Amino acid sequence: MGFISGCSSVSFAPNITITPGAALLLPGQSIQFSATVNGHPLTNPIWTVNKVTGGAAASGTITSSGLYTAPTGTPSSEIQVNVTDSDHNIGATPASISIFQRNQFSPGAVTASNNPLVALYAFSVPEGGTVQVQFGTTTSYGLTTWSQPAPDGGGEVDIEVAGMRASTTYHMQAVAHLADGSTLFDNDQSFTTGDLPADLLPNLTIQQTPGLNPAPGVELLCLFEGGQTLLTAVVTDLAGNVIWYYPMQPLSPFPMKLLPNGHMLILESGVNIVQEIDLAGNVISQVSLSDIQQGLTAAGISFPQLTGMDHDLVKLPNGHLVIVVSTTETVSGPSGDMTVGGSGLIDWDPQQGAVWTWSAFDHIPLTHAPFGTQDWTHANAVIYSPDDGDLIFSMRNQDWIVKINYQNGAGDGSILWRLGPEGDFTLPAGQAPLEWNYGQHYPVLVGSNSSGIFPLMFFNNGNNRLVDSANDVCGTMGLTPCYSSVPIFELNEYTKTAQVLKEINLSPAYSTCCGSTNILSNQDLEYDIAFDVNKPNLSYIEEVTPDAQPQLVWQMNIAGQLAYRGFRIPSLYPGVEWTQSELATANSAAKPHRTRRLVKR
Predict the structure, then answer these.
(1) C-alpha span between 74 and 56 (Å, rounded)
(2) First CA to last CA across the chain, in angstroms?
(3) Neighbours of 580 (CB within 10 A)
(4) Where are the beta strands (DSSP E) in 436-523?
(5) What domains, with CATH codes, occur in the chain?
(6) Does the bond joining 443 to the residue before it have cis omega, within 30 degrees of 0?
(7) CA nearest neighbour of 233 among 195, 277, 272, 194
(8) Using 50, 70 and 90 to split pLDDT, how confident is the model at 334?
(9) Is beta strand 596-597 parallel, antiparallel or unpaired with respect to 562-569?
(10) Cβ neighbours of residue 553 under 8 Å, at least 6 residues apart?
(11) For the purposes of burial, counting CB atoms within 10 Å of the CB of 290, is it exposed (0-12), middle (13-18) or buried (19 or more)?
(12) Do the beta carbons of residue 555 and residue 598 sit within 8 Å?
């Protein structure tokens, strides 16, 4: 250490780092090593294997550029790759090389996780390999997880195995696909899931029409009003068995979504926290309402008073979260000041905080208030439009679905169009105002594009539906009763025209809140009738055929809890679809769940 003019100067010894620091390879397999000194590439690297420059056949060879090739036979001693740099005359911590032997590999290990229905399976594979796990109650297995790659250089792959019923013994087996095109099977392993007490389980009953087969997948449920014990964040099979859950009751997921990375994204009602969790329930990241408020302040962004995060959020391809927030503003009215409840959007960058905002107060006149100003907008859904980088936003108390000029964070927030009564689109003669959206939920892009001319599907709750050209409201004496429906609109952004391509009229069902819908992989339609005024204390989810006269295929009845959203997902793993026959095979030795059969609707 030297001292110059009162300031200290520290000399750091050069430090060489080899990447990767270890490798697991097939016999004869090659891997590229690199080396840096204090973060910078070496100028004159000299690569050695077991202290021999360039290596040897018995321990593997390495080129002057660091390309190592493993021996084709079984090495007699440990293998280490090292590098020196003639400019610094120093070496590095060696990289250890292991040779994977197909007939002598280390079996995998299965352990419990934080979630009693999720097992942790660890299995090591060489460079370039992938691992997936097959599992079921017998050695016929039936279900598979997704496939995950080996780490750089090869090594342990950890997979969370989920999709199992409680208090049941499952067999599971890792299947490795190696870089040379061969497949390797681990030994059969077993795992017994934990118990779920009956007082935790939602009250679910299933109806299924004989001769009609439900679409592949499992059911993701966002449940409310479950008291202090009943599960609220749940995934079930189509027999109504809980196969995954997140223990957050009495809080509710508002909502919950499966992400492309295999994690769950959950907005927890009541505490205003967004969490990204893995299937075992470990929190990967989170952001709270106070974090957002502090982020707005730090960024110098003026925004209405935040009162909550609720109803929806979306994770963008760049990792940002766009979160629906509730806000209030005090405005002057004819009778004095009044508090108006509005909605907004926050683009939250996990590294930078709030980077873009949108407030209804800036873009919608207060005179447009079909449901009054106390809960003026009541936004309930946001989806990302990949074609143009804009946002599609549902505000049920405006009776509008709007497209917002977001442009991947560069847009000015202006409303590009408004779908609904008094909006920007026109319907064919005779369809308006009956076919407009009223109090709608959960818009879904069901086509291959999201701009220009494209289809949009949603759950049309039908609140205060206008039924004739005189703008009479449904349910008025002598007029059409109020009802909910599931339409698919075709929107033409160029001509601002819309038409209903298809619609399921759910009358007499009239769900005054909540709901979701989608087209399933077999082209059946599914929808969540969450709050039917004609069936109190019951939410029900139906799958129907796409025929002109839809037939009921499958129905889940949920008693005592509100299904804010309920919809089919292909499986608990992105890119993997579980068919109903595969689910049956996987649970062939499990205790059967009682279901009620429905002969006709």
Answers:
(1) 13
(2) 86
(3) 17
(4) 441-445, 453-459, 485-492, 497-505, 517-519
(5) 9-99 (2.60.40.1080), 109-192 (2.60.40.10), 197-250+526-601 (no CATH), 252-419 (no CATH), 427-510 (no CATH)
(6) no
(7) 277
(8) confident
(9) unpaired
(10) 208, 209, 212, 213, 214, 524, 543, 544, 545
(11) exposed
(12) yes
Which pair of tokens denotes residue 25?
């390879």
Report which of 198, 200, 246 is spatially closest to residue 220, judged by C-alpha positions: 246
Query: What are the tens digits of pLDDT across the range 56-88?
Result: 999 999 999 999 999 998 898 899 999 998 776
Distances (CA, A) of 310 to 73, 275, 293: 60, 13, 15
Q: Tokens at residue 479, please?
A: 């007029």
Residue 470, number of CB atoms within 10 A of its CB: 8
pLDDT in tens, 422-455: 999 999 999 999 999 999 999 999 999 999 999 9
Of 52, 243, 72, give the one whose Cα is nearest residue 164: 243
Q: How far is the C-alpha of 121 from the C-alpha of 148, rounded, in Å?
A: 12
Classified as helix, coil or strand, 70 is coil
Q: Which residue has the tokens 């060879």?
A: 61
- Give the torsion sign (CA, 579, 190, 283, 311): positive
Rounded Cα distance, 63 and 45, in Å = 10
Distances from the Cα of 318 to the Cα of 291, 315, 347, 449, angstroms: 20, 8, 11, 19
- Per-residue pLDDT tens digits for 368-388: 999 999 999 999 999 999 999
Structural tokens at position 131: 């691992």
